[in-house]
Amino acid sequence: MPTEYRLEGDGTNIQALPKISLHDHLDGGLRPQTLLELADEIGHEVPASDAEGLDRWFAEQSNSGSLVEYLKTFDLTTAVMQTREGLTRVAREFVQDLAADGVIYGEIRWAPEQHLTRGLSLDETVEAVQSGLEQGVDDVRAQGRGIRVGQLVTAMRHADRGLEIAELAVRHRDRGVVGFDIAGAEAGFLPSRHRTAFDYLASQYLPVTVHAGEADGLESIRSALFDGRALRLGHGVRIAEDLIIDRQDDENTYVSLGPVAQWVRDREIALETSPSSNLQTGAIAAWGDELIDHPFDLLYQLGFRVTVNTDNRLQSGTTLTRELALLSDAFGYDLEDFETFQLNAAAAAFLPLDDREELAEQIQNGFDDA
């Protein structure tokens, strides 16, 4: 049976609360049983013979404390997502699982260039995923609920296809794509490598989020902001490296902001934090190795636009509901805090203003009814 998470104090069912998911990878959200079945169809070897064993394997591989090691688990997930049928099924189930988690709007990011080994073109991969997403939305609607989703087309930062993938995203902007991202090994691969792609996206008015401040520090964040024109930072937790602790007493910590942190906070550039993933990959190693050490709360108290995300539900064995529960346990957050996180995400969604305001209203109504 799935774990039921309730808010300590008032007993609110966290899963039932309306949520927004901004940072969730398609190839990090497969159901283990689906992975087994798709692997069997294409004759791909897997490290376990049943879903429970595969789940354990992912957990063991993902808790290395290294982003590079963590990313190796995606060799298996992407291997079974090389056909139209595989992509469509994974995308359809992804939406079903988001809705079951209480998500009312989700942006699903993935890298089409990693799904070409069995003959699909870039455009065909995007079309296959979109078909699955739409089927998932229909499935949710048939159950009497509603969900809206969009694709974040992602380029791999270590490759040289940034402009090509940016052009792909723009071609499909009226057919499901809502924005662009770069992902992959961060250290040594600054966003500036893809400046031409970002220039093109800016000329086409397509919004951008950039993985930055996870496995690299302020230089990466600075490049995401000024080379990538990022409106959001994927993870972004290492922006805390630009906070200067002036003094502390028994009740308060007094902090000054460096120029990059000041810019991010003042411009309300959203941080797409993923607490469990940040622990697994060592993104917060400078502050500690437990959730209580995560700079999330400090950033929240300082007024940064923090959002809560899963990153990879399979690798982290998590849901958005669980991530909120873990944060509540660590920092004592209540229903009002949870609502703030969702309203932050609604404001940062890559949607027109009217749609963002509608999302905010849905969030407020859902929390009022909780």
TrEMBL record:
<dbReference type="GO" id="GO:0005829">
    <property type="term" value="C:cytosol"/>
</dbReference>
<dbReference type="InterPro" id="IPR032466">
    <property type="entry name" value="Metal_Hydrolase"/>
</dbReference>
<feature type="domain" description="Adenosine deaminase">
    <location>
        <begin position="18"/>
        <end position="364"/>
    </location>
</feature>
<dbReference type="InterPro" id="IPR001365">
    <property type="entry name" value="A_deaminase_dom"/>
</dbReference>
<dbReference type="GO" id="GO:0006154">
    <property type="term" value="P:adenosine catabolic process"/>
</dbReference>
<dbReference type="Pfam" id="PF00962">
    <property type="entry name" value="A_deaminase"/>
</dbReference>
<dbReference type="GO" id="GO:0046103">
    <property type="term" value="P:inosine biosynthetic process"/>
</dbReference>
<dbReference type="GO" id="GO:0009117">
    <property type="term" value="P:nucleotide metabolic process"/>
</dbReference>
<dbReference type="GO" id="GO:0046872">
    <property type="term" value="F:metal ion binding"/>
</dbReference>
<keyword id="KW-0862">Zinc</keyword>
<dbReference type="GO" id="GO:0043103">
    <property type="term" value="P:hypoxanthine salvage"/>
</dbReference>
<keyword id="KW-0378">Hydrolase</keyword>
<comment type="similarity">
    <text>Belongs to the metallo-dependent hydrolases superfamily. Adenosine and AMP deaminases family.</text>
</comment>
<keyword id="KW-0546">Nucleotide metabolism</keyword>
<dbReference type="InterPro" id="IPR006330">
    <property type="entry name" value="Ado/ade_deaminase"/>
</dbReference>
<protein>
    <recommendedName>
        <fullName>adenosine deaminase</fullName>
        <ecNumber>3.5.4.4</ecNumber>
    </recommendedName>
</protein>
<keyword id="KW-0479">Metal-binding</keyword>
<dbReference type="GO" id="GO:0004000">
    <property type="term" value="F:adenosine deaminase activity"/>
</dbReference>
